[in-house]
Amino acid sequence: MKGLKTFLLLTFLCALGGCAKQPPVPETQATGSPQTAEVKRVTSVGVVSAAPQPVEVKAGGTAQLIVPLKIQSGYHVNANPPTFAYLKATQLEIAPSEGISAAAISYPSPATRKFAFAEKPLAVYEGETEIKATIKADNGASKGAHSLVAHLRVQACDDQVCYPPGQIELQIPVTVK
What is the mean pLDDT of residues 6-22? Predict the structure, then answer.
């Protein structure tokens, strides 16, 4: 019963703010002028970058797409699937276009880390990792250059707090042969 109460409390708190603790007050840095200060705010999309590699696929065939992720040192993002249902998983969605679509998306094996805000270790991605997808071109897909739109949803955390989730829009260059 105590475990259920703890789970429900954590679920409620994370629904309000992403995790059990709120982000710290943003730091300020002097910009050279004594009257101005630049606010340095941490955001999920600010600590994660993604650069899909161009992919070539034959009409009627499939090819592997690789989306390298770089997560700034000192931060992590939740794995897919996440350890708890209330955590926001890293998720790639690729919209189909002009006879080209994602047939499957696979996520990397996570690291397991213990954090002060969670009672058990969490499955996370840190540093550099890759999301892979199988791209499929229909027989009727026109040959030449195409661009697929994708959205990468992430929620960055440090060792004390999780930041609001964010979404990175990606353009995936696809050439149909």
Answer: 41
Cα–Cα separations (whole angstroms), residue 64 to 102, 136, 157? 10, 9, 29
Q: What is the pLDDT of residues 103-116, one digit of tens each?
A: 999 999 999 999 88
Instruction: Name the nearest CA neighbour of 152 among 85, 73, 65, 74.
Output: 65
Q: What pTM, to 2 d.p., does this model score?
A: 0.76
23, β-bridge pairs: none
Residue in 162, 83, 150 with CA at minimum distance from that of residue 117: 162
Give the N- to C-terminal CA distance of the chain in Å, as an integer: 59
20: Cβ–Cβ under 8 A, 6 or more apart, which residues?
10, 13, 14, 117, 118
